[in-house]
Structure formats: structure tokens, C-alpha cells
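Technical note accompanying the year-one report. For the benefit of new consortium partners, we illustrate the data format agreed upon in the data management plan: each record pairs a sequence with a C-alpha cell string. No post-processing was applied to the example shown here.
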Amino acid sequence: MKALSQFLRTTIVGGILFLLPIVVISVVLGKAFDYAQRVLRPIIELLPDWTSSTMLSAALTIVAIGLLCFCAGLIARSLFAQRMVARLESAFLSKAPVYTYVKQVGASMMGASGIKEFPVVLVQISGALATWNSN
């Protein structure tokens, strides 16, 4: 009975952890789409009547979001942004429980080669989760 309970609990938690990023990305992109459509509405209204369809509006909105993401990616690759993220990580995020573990898992999923010789592991001790780094 205990094995069944453990299986159900870990499967449900695994499902939540699998679906959570998908839901968050969907909500964020939905809000970005709505906001971008409101911003682009004056531009779309300037187009001739035969071109101002819903499909064109959606296409322009998606292109605008894509360009915004591209520009954000360019900024993120800059030395200034990398230094700012490093400061933020060292000042706040590294002190948050499980942050280093989640960062390392994300890096390995993205194929980053920055995995340390001594990886961070997630350990359950007496019902509490803790991170442990052997460095």
C-alpha cells in the first residue's frame, strides 16, 4: 500500500512539474499576444480595408512578438546583461533553495556543457528537501 501511495504521489508531482512550465509559457504568451494586439491596433487600422483581417492582425502580432524576443535575446547575450544576471544570482538566487539544482537541470536539458565535475544534487532528508554541492 505504501508503494502505491509513493507511486501516486511521485507521479502527480512529476506531472505537475512537467505541466507547470507549459502552462506558465502559455499564459505569458497569451498575455503578450493580447498586449501586442492592443499596441498594434492603430497601425493595423491604417492599412487598407481589404488587408485588415483578423489573420493579418494575428500575423503582425506574432511577428512583433518574435522581433521583440529576438531583440531580448540579443540583449541577453551582451556582456552587460550577463554580468547583471551573475550579480543577481550571487546576491539572491543562489540563496534560494533548489535554485542551483534547477539551473543545472535546465542547463543539461539545453545541452549546455557547463556541468561541473561535482554536480549539485537534490536530497530528501527527513521529509525536507535540501540541495547539496560537493564543492
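Partners are asked to follow this layout when depositing records. Residues 2-46 form the longest helix (45 residues).
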